[in-house]
């Protein structure tokens, strides 16, 4: 039996400071904080959905969920 490989994430997520400035300007500090909080929670939920879909072999759901992750990340300036 072949050994099991463990994958580790190597990418850093960077939040675009200019996008944060726009969020604060448009929504105020408290509003921007709420948007960021919601975005982080949604990213977490959707990553779990991707993992579940992978385990179930549902590639179509993986694609839909990954696409929605892009939109959420872009909204708050999360980039690789």
Give me a quick take on this structure.
By secondary structure, this protein is mainly alpha-helical. It has helices spanning 17-56, 59-76, and strands at 14-15, 78-79.
Can you walk me through this structure?
The protein is mostly helical and 80 residues long. Helix content is 72%, strand content 5%. It has 2 helices and 2 strands; from the N terminus they run E-H-H-E. The protein has helices spanning 17-56, 59-76; strands at 14-15, 78-79. Strands 1-2 form a two-stranded antiparallel ribbon. The protein is elongated.
Characteristic terms for this protein:
single chain; 80 residues; mainly alpha; two-stranded antiparallel sheet; 2 helices; 2 strands
Describe the SSE topology.
Layout (H helix, E strand, L loop, with lengths): L13 E2 L1 H40 L2 H18 L1 E2 L1
Helix pairs in contact: 1-2
Poorly predicted runs: none
Radius of gyration: 16 Å
Strand content: 5-15%
Structural class: mainly alpha
How far apart lie the N and C ends? 36 Å
**Strand runs, count:** 2
Tell me the strand order in the biggest sheet.
1-2
Average predicted local confidence, pLDDT: 88
Count of helical regions: 2
Shape: elongated
Order of helices and strands: EHHE
What share of the residues lie within helices?
Answer: over 70%
Q: Please, what is the oligomeric state?
A: single chain
What kind of sheet is the major sheet? 2 strands, antiparallel
């Amino acid at each position: 039996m072949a050994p099991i490989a463990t994958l580790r994430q190597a990418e850093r997520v960077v939040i675009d400071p200019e996008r944060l400035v726009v969020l604060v300007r448009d929504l105020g500090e408290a509003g921007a904080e709420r948007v960021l909080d919601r975005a982080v929670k949604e990213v977490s939920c959707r990553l779990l959905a991707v993992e579940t879909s992978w385990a179930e072999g549902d590639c179509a759901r993986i694609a839909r969920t990954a696409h929605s992750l892009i939109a959420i990340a872009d909204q708050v300036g999360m980039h690789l």
